[in-house]
């Protein structure tokens, strides 16, 4: 069992965590970074330090390789980096983790949660079938192992859906179809935000180039699909949907389905720490309350990156630096003048990078019915296999929210600890009870943030565990 | 209330399950009641049920701040046993166990009672002597009890490490075969449904903000859903007993501590019984779903936060891994905390108070669940008759004046 | 089915999946290696026995669980391929760990 102490414990080695650790080290803080993955980079720069090929680099593009300087700066920053480390508890005393090195407790004056985003759970009939995964999962397989699946159907909406599809096209995969579920009216809702988005024109231009590339490839893009369902016995075999208002049910055979409905912060760690959170209506998700520097409602806890609010990789990096400055300042290691001087340009750049967000949030807002599926048989909680009908029954009996729902249905009590159902269950209860998502609330989360062995809690060493 | 029977199941099966009615009503508070019970957990609902059933008090209500069974009832590890040392304790817990044995039938609701047996382990000679003494005392009180040696323990619970060279060696254990576990939600729902059928109003999302008194006598309640007139208020609010009593200026000899429990990932059936260790202060059973449910000891400090720190239970988990080596790689999925009210003698309070019409049931420490039916039964008698019956008499507040304590802390050396 | 469009990861090593030997790349993601080898499904659920495969590939969905080197319920999407790794598919609830303690 490892025991050490530091000024700043950083959970997550994505852009926010890496930038924070580099900045903190440069400011003379002792930083420890704990990350579940075998290498740094997070999801966006997944496997960037692993062996790569020129062909894969070409497919993943300059945005992916753009992470290299950040990774290099991080690995040479002097921060104590522990890979394969699963943090299961954070508190004002520091962090506890399990890992290949035997795990341990790290005392820390400040804890920075930079655990990133996850794809918004997209429950639809058949989404638990083998062969169905998220678009982000398909991209991680491409980044890490150069894996491609031919004849896949992409279902959903959002920038990442089109990014992965573009990368698939560039890698020479044949895409069966892209079924875009965005509400056509979303374009008009987004339009007022376009001028602001154009201030950061790179994003929009990139998006338009992606769409053109997909069009040129001859990939079928289907708009106006409703009531999408996935069919299959022991594996997904087809996608079916209702096309337009005509009521005609369409069917497309396939072996792979990649789902995507945008990304949401992974809220488990900050919620388990009992930091204050709020419902973000624009992004339709729960986010931790924080100031411009990432300080939360708890004096010892900071949050940065997409896990604290969706902003993308650049904003994540900047927010990580800001959090490191705040930690240094609050621990008396950076005077007020220097703190203000160093913060100002970072805050300006965050503002510029966030300019396209309102436009993107509205353009790719999940259409009605995707957050809260309508079909009674659709599984909401994948772990405990709780269907919408069971949740509806509980609500009809007076179940007021997600926490009591656990007694009625066990939803949210499986190993994923509510990550895959929390948002959709909130949406279903909100819809059925006529109360806002904010009022319905979220699961009351507690440590351990990830399932952890008794041996790890008991602080047994690796050798002791092997003996028993 | 529809009766649950084979016939009703078949009938509803044929009708597509469209004829079931809600198990209890969702009434608004009436302006006045003959008695109001604060707290919709197991004990409170049982009290209401027995008040209506045995004492014919049907114009009564249970008011609950959140939802029924959502407090300590929903947080405990549902261990049922009655093998207490002292006569007074044995009487109330055995009374409860007898009621548990027939409760599914009585309530027409399956409370999933499982008499799988409870082992209390001894780790040193002193503990072994105490446990043997307790077995004798139990038998004199008509409570089933056996003393097992390491070999018999291994036979009864093969996954226990009974080797002599561990930090907490298992040198003996008591076994109560009638002990076991049940299902906390089912108990609360069963009592709620049966009480509702007798006319009891179960009012959820109703927080008591003030207890109204005149000249030392209760006159009513102020709640988040309006004022209620009543001359009898019965507090059954484990974890907040002192807070409610404080509303009428009654000070109780109670300390409130956080208590924690953990649940593992589901596992094929492996633990056939409930195992409790007093020296380590952990207890462990396996749920029908296959999850191991592990209860830990209380935090040393007093607190009203419904959480404890996992650091506190590190050594307890280390010990449990030694006792059950096959659990070392078992993943714990959830952990939670509750608040337990502990009296100086580790025995409960079922009592009148200096305020007329204000009754208290609390201070059950970490082990109140097992007493639920007995506690409700005795408390209902006290509320109805304004005097404790023979079972409740040893547990009144007077004992802290007379010194006639039921000192289970020191005597039984069990994890309460 | 997934195919490799390039060959970047480390040297090819053998791992064992349910007594079957498959090729994997040293240091690559275990779930990816199992997908490339067309292992299907990864497991069945303890609740209904339904077949499951990786869904998120980033450690949040817990659908890619398998027994890795004797340890049940490992998230294969967070594991790295090592030579000689032994993977068993996990059907239903896990069994308790090796029972070599005690008497």
Keywords:
heterotrimer; A: 468 residues; alpha/beta; FAD/NAD(P)-binding domain; Arc Repressor Mutant, subunit A; seven-stranded mixed beta sheet; five-stranded parallel beta sheet; 18 helices; 23 strands; B: alpha/beta; D-Amino Acid Oxidase, Chain A, domain 2; 2 domains; eight-stranded mixed beta sheet; six-stranded mixed beta sheet
Short description:
The complex is a heterotrimer of chains A (468), B (416) and C (103). Chain B is an alpha/beta fold and 416 residues long. Chain B is 29% helix and 24% strand.
Summed up, the helix count of chain C is 1
> Could you name the CATH class of chain C?
Alpha Beta
Radius of gyration of chain A equals 22 Å
What is the helix content of chain A? 25-40%
By oligomeric state, this entry counts as: heterotrimer
InterPro entries (chain B): FAD-dep_OxRdtase, FAD/NAD-bd_sf, SoxB
Keywords (chain B): Cytoplasm, Nucleotide-binding, Oxidoreductase
Subcellular location (chain B): Cytoplasm
Main location (chain B): cytoplasm
What does this structure look like?
The complex is a heterotrimer of chains A (468), B (416) and C (103). With 468 residues, chain A is of the alpha/beta class. Chain A has three domains: 188 residues, FAD/NAD(P)-binding domain (3-Layer(bba) Sandwich); 130 residues, FAD/NAD(P)-binding domain, CATH 3.50.50; 57 residues, Orthogonal Bundle (Arc Repressor Mutant, subunit A). Chain A has 18 helices and 23 strands. The longest helix of chain A has 18 residues. The radius of gyration of chain A is 22 Å and the shape is globular. Chain B is globular, with a radius of gyration of 21 Å. The longest helix of chain B is centred in the first third of the chain and has 21 residues. Chain B starts with 5 loop residues before the first helix and ends with a helix. With 416 residues, chain B is α/β, with parallel strands linked by helices. In chain B, the strands form four sheets. An eight-stranded mixed β-sheet of chain B has the order 5-6-4-14-15-16-13-17. Chain B has a six-stranded mixed β-sheet with strand order 8-2-1-12-19-18. A three-stranded antiparallel β-sheet of chain B has the order 9-10-11, with no helix packed on it. Chain B has two domains: 197 residues, FAD/NAD(P)-binding domain, CATH 3.50.50; 179 residues, D-Amino Acid Oxidase, subunit A, domain 2 (D-Amino Acid Oxidase, Chain A, domain 2). Chain C has a single domain, classed as Ubiquitin-like (UB roll) (Roll), CATH 3.10.20.440. Helices cover 7% and strands 32% of the residues of chain C. Chain C contains one helix and nine strands; from the N terminus they run E-E-E-H-E-E-E-E-E-E. In chain C, the strands form two sheets. In chain C, strands 3-2-8-6-7 form a five-stranded mixed β-sheet, covered by helices on one side. The relative contact order of chain C is 0.23. The C terminus of chain C is likely disordered. Chains B and C meet through loops of B and strand 7 of C. Chain C: It comes from Rhodobium orientis. Chain C: InterPro entries: 2Fe-2S-bd_N, 2Fe-2S_ferredoxin-like_sf. Chain C: This is (2Fe-2S)-binding protein. Chain C: GO terms for molecular function: iron-sulfur cluster binding; oxidoreductase activity. Chain C: Keywords: Oxidoreductase.
């Amino acid at each position: 069992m490892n025991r050490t102490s530091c000024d700043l414990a950083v959970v997550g080695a994505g852009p926010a965590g890496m930038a924070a650790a580099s900045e903190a080290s440069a400011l003379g803080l002792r930083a420890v970074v704990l990350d579940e993955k075998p290498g740094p980079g997070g999801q966006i720069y997944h496997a960037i330090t692993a062996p790569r090929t020129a062909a894969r680099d070409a497919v993943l593009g300059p945005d992916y390789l753009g992470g290299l300087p950040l990774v290099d700066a991080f690995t040479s920053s002097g921060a104590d980096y522990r890979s394969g480390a699963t943090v299961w508890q954070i508190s004002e005393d520091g962090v506890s983790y399990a890992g290949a090195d035997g795990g341990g407790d790290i005392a820390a004056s400040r804890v920075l949660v930079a655990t990133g985003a996850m794809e918004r759970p997209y429950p639809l009939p058949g989404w638990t079938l083998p062969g169905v995964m998220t678009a982000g999962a398909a991209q991680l397989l491409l980044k890490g192992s150069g894996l491609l699946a031919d004849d896949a159907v992409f279902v959903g909406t959002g920038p990442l859906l089109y990014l992965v599809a573009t990368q698939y096209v560039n890698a020479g995969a044949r895409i069966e179809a892209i079924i875009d579920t965005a509400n056509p009216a979303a374009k008009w809702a987004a339009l007022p935000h376009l001028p602001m988005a154009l201030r950061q024109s790179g994003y929009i231009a990139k998006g338009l180039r992606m769409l053109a590339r997909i069009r040129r490839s001859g990939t079928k893009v289907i708009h106006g699909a409703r009531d999408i369902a996935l069919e299959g016995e022991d594996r997904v075999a087809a996608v079916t949907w209702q096309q337009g208002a005509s009521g005609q049910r369409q069917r497309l055979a396939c072996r792979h389905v990649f789902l995507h409905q945008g990304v949401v912060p992974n809220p488990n760690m900050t919620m388990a720490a009992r930091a204050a959170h709020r419902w973000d209506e624009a992004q339709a998700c729960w986010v931790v309350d924080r100031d411009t520097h990432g300080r939360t409602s708890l004096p010892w806890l900071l949050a940065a990156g997409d896990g604290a609010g969706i902003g993308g990789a650049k904003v994540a990096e900047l927010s990580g630096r800001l959090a490191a400055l705040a930690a240094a300042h609050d621990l008396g290691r950076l005077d007020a003048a220097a703190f203000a001087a160093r913060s100002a340009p970072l805050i300006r750049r965050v503002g510029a990078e966030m300019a396209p967000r309102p436009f993107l949030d509205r353009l790719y807002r999940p259409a009605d019915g995707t957050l809260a599926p309508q079909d009674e048989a659709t599984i909401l909680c994948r772990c405990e296999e709780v269907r919408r009908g069971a949740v509806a029954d509980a609500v009809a009996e007076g179940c007021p929210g997600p926490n009591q729902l656990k007694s009625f249905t066990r939803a949210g009590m499986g190993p994923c600890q509510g990550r895959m159902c929390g948002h959709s269950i909130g949406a279903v209860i909100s819809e059925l009870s006529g109360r806002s998502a904010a009022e319905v609330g979220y699961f009351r989360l507690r440590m351990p943030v990830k399932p952890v062995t008794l041996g790890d809690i008991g602080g047994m060493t690796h050798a002791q565990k092997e003996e028993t | 209330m529809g009766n649950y029977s084979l016939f009703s199941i078949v009938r509803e099966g044929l009708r597509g399950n469209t004829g079931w009615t809600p198990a209890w009503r969702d009434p608004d508070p009436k302006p006045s009641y003959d008695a109001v019970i604060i707290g919709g957990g197991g004990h409170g609902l049982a009290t209401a049920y027995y008040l209506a059933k045995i004492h014919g008090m049907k114009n009564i209500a249970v008011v609950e701040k959140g939802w029924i069974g959502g407090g300590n009832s929903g947080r405990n590890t549902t261990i049922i046993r009655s093998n207490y040392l002292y006569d007074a304790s044995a009487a109330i817990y055995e009374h409860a166990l007898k009621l548990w044995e027939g409760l599914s039938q009585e309530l027409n609701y399956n409370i999933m009672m499982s008499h799988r047996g409870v082992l209390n382990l001894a780790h040193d000679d002193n503990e072994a002597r105490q446990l043997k003494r307790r077995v004798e005392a139990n038998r004199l009180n008509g409570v089933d009890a056996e003393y097992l040696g390491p070999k018999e323990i291994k036979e009864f619970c093969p996954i226990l490490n009974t080797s002599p060279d561990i930090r907490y060696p298992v040198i003996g254990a008591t076994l109560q075969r009638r002990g076991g576990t049940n299902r906390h939600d089912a108990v609360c729902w069963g009592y709620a449904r049966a009480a509702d059928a007798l006319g009891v109003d179960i009012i959820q999302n109703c927080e008591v903000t003030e207890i109204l008194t005149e000249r030392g006598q209760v006159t009513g309640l102020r709640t988040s859903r309006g004022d209620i007139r009543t001359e009898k208020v019965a507090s059954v609010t484990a974890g907040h007993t002192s807070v409610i009593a404080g509303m009428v200026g009654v000070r109780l000899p109670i300390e409130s501590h956080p208590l924690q429990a953990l649940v593992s990932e589901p596992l094929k059936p492996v633990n056939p019984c409930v195992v409790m260790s007093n020296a380590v202060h952990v207890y462990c059973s396996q749920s029908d779903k296959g999850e191991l449910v592990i209860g830990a000891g209380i935090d040393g400090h007093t607190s009203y936060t419904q959480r404890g720190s996992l650091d506190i239970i590190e050594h307890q988990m280390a010990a449990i891994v030694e006792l059950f080596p096959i659990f070392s790689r078992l993943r714990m999925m959830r952990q939670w905390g509750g608040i337990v009210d502990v009296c100086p003698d580790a025995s409960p309070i079922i009592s009148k108070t200096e305020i007329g019409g204000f009754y208290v049931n609390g201070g059950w420490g970490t082990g109140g669940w097992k007493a639920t039916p007995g506690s409700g039964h005795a408390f209902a008698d006290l509320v109805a008759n304004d005097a404790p019956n023979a079972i409740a008499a040893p547990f009144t507040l007077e004992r802290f004046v007379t010194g006639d304590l039921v000192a289970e802390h020191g005597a039984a050396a069990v994890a309460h | 089915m997934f195919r490799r469009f390039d060959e970047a990861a480390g040297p090819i090593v053998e791992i064992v999946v349910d007594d079957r030997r498959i090729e994997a790349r040293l240091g690559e993601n275990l779930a990816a290696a199992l997908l490339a080898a067309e292992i299907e499904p990864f497991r069945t659920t303890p609740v209904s026995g339904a077949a499951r495969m990786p869904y998120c590939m980033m450690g949040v969905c817990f659908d890619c669980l398998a027994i890795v080197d004797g340890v049940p319920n490992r998230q294969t999407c967070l594991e790295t391929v090592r030579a000689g790794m032994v993977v068993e598919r996990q059907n239903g609830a896990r069994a308790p760990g090796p029972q070599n303690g005690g008497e």
